[in-house]
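WARN no homologs supplied; continuing
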Amino acid sequence: MTDRRTLWSTAAAGEIAQICAQHGLERVAPEVRRIAQPVADLCVSPKGARDRQMLYGQGFTLHAMSNEGWAFGETVADRYSGWIELSHLENQTDAAPTHRITAATSYAKSTEGLKTPGQVTPLSMGSELVVAEDMDGWSRVAWSNKQDACEWFVSSLHLAPINSIETDPVTIAERLLGTPYLWGGNSAFGIDCSGLVQIACHACGIPCPGDSDQQMAQLGETLDPGTPPQRGDLLFWKSHVGWIADPDTLLHANAYAMSVTREPLQAAIDRIAAQGDQVLRHARLTPGKKGV
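OK structure emitted
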């Protein structure tokens, strides 16, 4: 049986047809729609558990729909298959995003200017926006939801062009220090270990799958045991991953602290070993190697 997380990218047509029939789905021509709220859960099944999350403006390729208001498809960024409520998607996409949020958290406001009153909607790092113009430090953005399309405003200091590439994924992850731990989370409002790796990699133009086992299989070059760690390395355990911030420090989202934290590296290794898990892989994101 195909891994459900890669169904739409790897499964045979017959298996896809069987699953669609099982759920009573209407197949549609593949269509990219975008998330129309700050955070949306990508679920295992309709009304099922959270697998991952998507952020405002990120693309979702719709392949099938249920009559109960669920969309079945895959993320554009890493082709992770899952279910999203149709109400969380735009009806249609008129323009591709031009910018993304680079601050840990920001907001869109219904009025421009620092002191003007207006409605405020929170936005996480990684959210994708269509910027129409910049004006006095504020970017006017096209804003879509299920009710209407309008214009909102975001601080230009919190934005970067969608194709701009940052150079140090650990610096990106460090912006999220203190973010609450959330299983399956992908935002600055709640994130897990693999979400922290993925959001940092994507900001640096590094292709990265969503879950830690996929990341362990795909990211970087495996280093020999005993290789001195350096900033930007990844350490993998069963169902866990963390960034090396410096030779003595692990940066990771973890349930032990219920947040993104820095932890002395050896103390973290010893603590996790006491729970029965040893380091399984030490990887380095070396340019030119697989997964970079």
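The chain is about 15% helix and 35% strand.
OK
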